[in-house]
Amino acid sequence: MAITLNAQNDDESVTFEMVLSKDKLGINERIRVDFTMNRDGDNFNPPDFNGFRILMGPSQSISSSWVNGVRSFSKTYSYTLAPTARGKFTINQATIDIKGTTYKSLPQEVEVTAAVDRPDGEKTVDDVADESLHLVAEVSKSSPYLNEAVSVVYKLYASPNIDVTNFRALDNPKYNNFWSQDIPVTKYTIENTTYNGKPYRSVILKRVVLYPQRTGELELEPLSLDVSLQIPTNKRDFFGGRVMAPANKTVSAGKRTLRVKALPTEGKPAGFSGAVGEFDFFVTPSKTHLNASESLQAVVSINGKGNLKLFEIPKLHLPSSLEVYDPEYKESVRTTLSGMEGKVENSYTVVPTYRGKYPIPSLTFSYFNPKTEKYHTLNSKEAMINVLEGPTSGALSAIGPSATSSDSSKQLVVATADQFVFNKLNSNLTAISTNYFFGSTAFYLWWLLPLLLIPLAIVFGKKREAIASDVEGNRIKRANRLARKYLSASRKALGSKDSFYVALEKALHNYLKAKLKIETSEFSKDKIAMLLKEKNVDDHTNDGFIGLLENCEMARYSPFSEVQMQQDYDKASEVISQLDKQI
Fold first, then answer.
1. Which of the 8 DSSP states describes residue 80?
2. Can you tell me where the transmembrane regions are (predicted)?
3. β-bridge mates for residue 305, sequence order
């Protein structure tokens, strides 16, 4: 029996009431208490529920609809209670703030009697839901090393007796102190399995790979779901089938604790940069024979399985007589439940100026293997670059196989083809022209030219001073050039939705990576927004950047016109310009 208690308030347009599933129950039964309002409110304060134990709640549900131009709204806070003793108990009033006014429900008395005899299988809907639905977080390792991959799979187990009609996430874990990567579940696949020795059906709802960034005990926040169910009752329909009753249940995976071990100090190499996993290491020049002023690529690559995005690649050091440009970072990494695997590399562009032989020295890379629990050190092979043609350096121009340390400081003297030639004895002399330059028209024109250039120099100098003093204008120009640099690929792809938004998303992440010196491609939008806020980026620019990322995600599933793509391109240019001025 449901009892409705109206709030004591003169405003008839606002109602706040308490609804009980029953006012008399056995000590082995349960009661549901709903607090319902027809306007949205804040600061809900429930009663203390003296004489009862809270099994579930508060769960919140909101219903809103428009019928014939009339809006209907309902918001409910629900609790499931179990009595702790026999007797008569009063569920006191709850309060809620609606539009600045505090509303109170009326207290209600509930009688708890002795245990009620129920035939086998005769259970309430809540009893069946509690026994038939479970959310479990399956963790691959409970005691990993620092920066070792840990997978977490969230599975929903449901008894074959019930039907799950819908679910929604109430609270998603934040994974603080972890580098995290979601592995999207594109299709829900139901499998027949067992749970606690009983037959169940299971479905994977969420998969994530974590790399702990701190040692000690780290907590995994729980995932909570609101699940809509159909529960069988003891009633039968006209054809003898069981009548199903709807129900809602909040399930949580519960908190899990990981005990993260520090990497051992014994045997730790001096150049260890934090790599954990199993890797191969190479330094490869694109060619070893070339001419001066030609270029080659010296690639420092690491491939394998581990925390590929979370450590630094060893830097390449070459002789000073070679012109070396900043490396271009490339990655080809995919993330599975076992962790990251693939390849990362730095590609250096090298341009020799003089001919000779130049060594690419051996590099050292160290990593920790959690399987063997040992450090491993890899050394690349030394390579030699042979520059065949070109000018000779004023210093030592070649390092040959026979060169020794004793003659390394000697300067090579290279004979040119015309070094020893005879002086010519026959001269070809011509008479000097009698036309004198001094006093000529050309003489006076060249003499007056500097005087004519003085006013032009003054005007030009003032113009340069004006440009230099325009600090804001110069910043805007630099920002616009930066935006065009990162958005060039997306501009070329305008008109092709998929290519455009893939290039736009990559441009946004590459900008943050270059500006903040961090890898953001695996960050969530919330983390990126928090990061920009820490850099004192204003809310308008922050929201614009996050909005662009959301559009890039929506474009995978929704049609976008060329006008929308052009608008997003213009907005991206403006946002990058604003970020460059603020960060």
1. E
2. 436-460
3. 278, 341
Q: Cβ atoms within 10 A of the Cβ of 256, count?
A: 16
Q: Answer yes or no: are the C-beta atoms of 97 and 80 closer than 8 Å.
A: no
Segment 227-263, tens digit of pLDDT: 988 888 767 766 666 778 888 888 888 788 999 999 9
Whole-angstrom Cα distance, residue 260 to residue 274?
15
Q: What is the DSSP letter of 481?
A: H
Where does residue 371 rank: exposed (0-12), middle (13-18), buried (19+ CB within 10 A)? Answer: exposed
Please tell me the distance from the alpha carbon of residue 135 to that of residue 142, in angstroms, as a whole number.
18
Instruction: Tell me if 560 sits within 8 A of 466, measured CB to CB.
Output: no
Q: How confident is the model at residue 339 (pLDDT cuts 50, 70, 90)?
A: very high
- The kind and range of the H/E element at 79 are strand 70-83
Backbone angles phi, psi at 419, to 5 degrees: -70, -40
CATH classification for the domain delimited by 278-387, as one of 1.10.10, 1.20.1300, 2.60.40, 1.10.3470:
2.60.40
Does residue 344 carry a pLDDT above 50? yes
Terminal-to-terminal C-alpha distance of the chain: 62
What is d(CA 150, CA 44) in angstroms, rounded to the nearest whole number?
39
CA-to-CA distance for 335 and 521, rounded, in angstroms? 13
The Cα 310–Cα 273 span in angstroms is: 9
Equal CATH topology for 3-117 and 278-387? yes
**Do you find a cis peptide bond into 314, omega within 30 degrees of 0?**
no
Whether 231 contacts 162, CB under 8 Å: yes
Residue 527 near residue 459 (C-beta atoms within 8 A): no
pLDDT digits (tens, 9 = 90+) for 563-581: 778 888 888 888 888 887 7
- Show me where the domains of the chain are located: 3-117, 126-260, 278-387, 472-582
Would you tell me how many other CB atoms lie within 10 Å of the CB of residue 372? 9
Residue from 54, 51, 1, 50 nearest 23 by CA: 1
DSSP 302-347: EEEEE-TTSSPPPPP---TTEEEPPPEEEEEEEEETTEEEEEEEEE
Look at residues 329, 316, 169 and name the one whose alpha carbon lies nearest to residue 251: 169
CA distance 225 to 164: 12
What's the pLDDT band for 54 if we cut at 50, 70, 90?
Answer: confident
- The token pair that represents 33 in the structure block: 């208490």
Instruction: Give the SS3 label for residue 387.
Output: strand
How far apart are the C-alpha atoms of 33 and 20, rounded to whole Å?
Answer: 5
Q: Find the helix packing angle between 562-582 and 539-554, rounded to 10°.
A: 140
Question: Which DSSP symbol is given to 443?
Answer: H
Which fold, 3-117?
Immunoglobulin-like (2.60.40)
User: What are the backbone angles phi and psi of residue 577, rounded to the nearest 5°?
Assistant: -65, -45
Q: What is the DSSP string of 405-426?
A: GGGTTSPP----TTSS-PPP--
- DSSP per residue, 9-78: -S-TT--EEEEES-SEEETTS-EEEEEEESS--EEEE----TTEEEEEEEEEEEEEEEETTEEEEEEEEE
Least trusted range by pLDDT, from 120-124, 455-459, 561-565: 120-124
